[in-house]
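[stage:ingest] chain + small molecule (thiamine diphosphate)
[stage:ingest] validated
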Amino acid sequence: MTVLEAPTAAPATAAAEVPPDRQLLMYRAMVVGRAFNRQATAFSRQGRLAVYPSSRGQEACQVGSALAVRPTDWLFPTYRESVALLTRGIDPVQVLTLFRGDQHCGYDPVAEHTAPQCTPLATQCLHAAGLADAARMAGDPIVALAYIGDGATSEGDFHEALNYAAVRRAPVVFLVQNNQYAISVPLAKQTAARTLADKAAGYGMPGVRIDGNDVLQVYQAVHDAAERARAGHGPTLIEAVTYRIDAHTNADDDTRYRPAGEADAWAAQDPVDRLERDLLAAGVLDRVAADGIAAAADAFATELSARFSEPPTGDPMQMFRHVYHHLPPHLREQSERLAAELAADEQGD
Ligand SMILES: Cc1ncc(C[n+]2csc(CCOP(=O)(O)OP(=O)(O)O)c2C)c(N)n1
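[stage:predict] done
[stage:export] tokens:
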């Protein structure tokens, strides 16, 4: 594996050669992930989703990382990680439930070994560290993979989680997707550090900086860090350098803060095109198979669109459960208003 820079020691485990069938699996997942980003962005424009944070351009980070851990390992995603969840096998409608505003989480976190998509920045890092440490104490060989954006590394919870995990040798992999911006704030205004991977040294863990648009590098770095953690050697911080091609969400106008042409320059590094070129050159993929995968991804998006036309199922009152034992007054008022509206709807039926 070629690391862009290894500010501190890189993980010791040798990078495994990725067999061709696994590379094809990654390619398929990235093409489907791209189609998912396209379709979900369309849903947000049609008003069928309240919001969608696209990961277009970050598919290598999402797919490579999700495939690098075991199904029994836990993911701690942010709102940006829809494609990682899809790659893990979570139903796409369930992945989008949060963004439709129906529920806090559309899937069963315990069954999927995946925490709810986290919207408050960096709190998931603490949850990951806590779960991993508990598993370590119980002798359960699971690893927690915590996703975080470059901007969220400025949050206190990120630093607390790294410190805790390092001191406790908790089996956590912290994967920072450095997509260059926290909404409109560029990385240079976020940190004075040379790199985000450099921050690992202060906590006594390895920091690795990789090309986040190269799925094989992401896969190998996360795989190595996970196996290192599983072997009892503690956490690793990985900085995957990438770029968010779309705006932060559909509610954001990126032309107001990104220089014209910047996204085009990064598009030349597009992770999906890049893997396709490499696999074609290596003879792992041919044009007919690539066209077949593209057609399957289009069919997946069409089916998702049809399924998304069905009205959401589930009890809207669920929103108010399992967060507070005693609802604070403003939420109690909201829950009473919703209950009254639901009762009125039922009477109208
Ligand atoms: C604790 C907290 N503060 C502020 C916000 C508002 N907010 C939402 S996304 C975001 C930027 C996050 O950027 P980054 O961590 O780089 O992740 P990205 O969205 O680029 O994946 C901010 C400030 C929030 N969700 N939570």
